[in-house]
Amino acid sequence: SAPSAFAAVDLGASSGRVVVGRVGAGTLDLTEVHRFPNTPVRLPGGLHWDILALYRGVLEGLRGAAAGPDPIASIGIDTWAVDYGLLDADGRLLGNPYHYRDARTDGVAERVWERVPAAELYAVTGLQHLPFNTVYQLAAARDTAQLAAARTLLLVPDLLTHWLTGSVGAEATNASTTGLYDAVAGTWSRELLDRLELPAALLPPIRRPGDPAGTLLPQVAAETGLPESTPVTAVGSHDTASAVVAVPATDPDFAYISCGTWSLAGLELSAPVLTEESRAANFTNELGVDGTIRYLRNVMGLWLLQESLRTWAARGEQHDLPELLAAAEEAEPFRSVVDPDDPVFLKPGDMPARIADWCREHGQPVPETAPQVVRCVVESLALAHRRTIREAARLAGRKVSVVHVVGGGSRNALLCRLTADACGLPVVAGPVEATALGNVLVQARAAGVVGDLAAMRALVAATQPTTRHEPSVDPATEAAWARAEARAFG
Ligand code: LFR
Predict the structure, then answer these.
(1) So what's the pLDDT on residue 1?
(2) Which of 39, 38, 34, 28 is nearest to 4 (CA)?
(3) Residue 13, exposed/middle/buried by CB under 10 A (0-12, 13-18, 19+)?
(4) How far does residue 415's CA lie from ligand 1's centre (Å)?
(5) Which of 78, 83, 239, 421 is labelled catalytic?
(6) Ligand 1 centre from 179 Cα, in Å?
(7) pTM above 0.80, yes or no
């Protein structure tokens, strides 16, 4: 039978895209129909997502999908995690959703832990501590007029789904990133909500990847040219959950790094690891598709490079990324390395200056040139990948024999090669558009076009190009990375 076509809406921290994926026996291909920038806006009250611009991009993309050659069998939406919009009693959006890098959560976690100690939060949610987890954002909003007026909280993909269909729900993989989701029971944690005095009624019913999420509202159908009967299907609406679906692993002993603005590095498990050791190492047990656990840690990722480029551009220094990476390749190895996960790097700002400060404070040579900064960032990320994957394997009692790098970072050959050397393992790089592929595949599975997770991965492996980076065989390599690791994480 002919392949079926599915539209995937995938919003990342720096850009959004709408792609059409065609899936059939032995077929999986993507066509990008629309790509648009995601530019946050700073208001006097804080840093926000421009949600209406994003929604306009979604509509424009769907219009492009409707105009294409294939009838669209369904639509799926994924975005970054954690952030949300609030609806009032009339179902209207209350203000612009905050950006997770906004400063209003500074110092809030400590207040939350006075009510519910961090160890108790972890025992219920299995979630790594990130200062911007939804639970802390809500605590920061505690006495605001906005929260008082709110009746429904919708995570960003669920908000966009609501505007397309009118349906109200919370997709489970993304719900698992809020800090309010019981990882074992698979529901909102009534106990945590009560103890934190957060209104449980704000949180909509959970839906799972593959569940129907409504059909298009008449005005959406009119505006996009898609039939009103077009269904929206819940996918792994947390982008990382969708990316992990499309890891083209054929060996069961695989680790993955979903590498974009963040590097999400870890393992797929069948059950959460909720030990105190795991909490102390700040590993998360986020929910994956089909009840799998994404056992991983957030590594600061290409954000460090993106913010450096932005800083230089604002100063009128234009750099061509491929040229810069080529120069970084030639730069002196291990001149300076930083802990990329130091919270000083989290907020938007002058990243080269922060890296210089970090190096100065830790007795390392300050990177002077742009290629030196880039070398430092890429090597530091490779180090963080090494440390994170080794710790995940140890804490989960698992062996790792290959590392899959998916997402935009899989195109960065220097980062992939250094990650292979740092981990002492082969790196299989690609696909770049893993998130959109995972989004499409879960829709296709709901439509009965593809089988289970293993079958989806086999289809990705058979159809999408990848590049293999073998680790260095020089016996001095491991010692060099171990020394660098001590300097960065000391
Ligand atoms: C990646 C991601 C991460 C999440 C971060 C913030 O795009 O979704 O998984 O921790 O963004 O939401």
Answers:
(1) 76
(2) 28
(3) buried
(4) 20
(5) 239
(6) 14
(7) yes
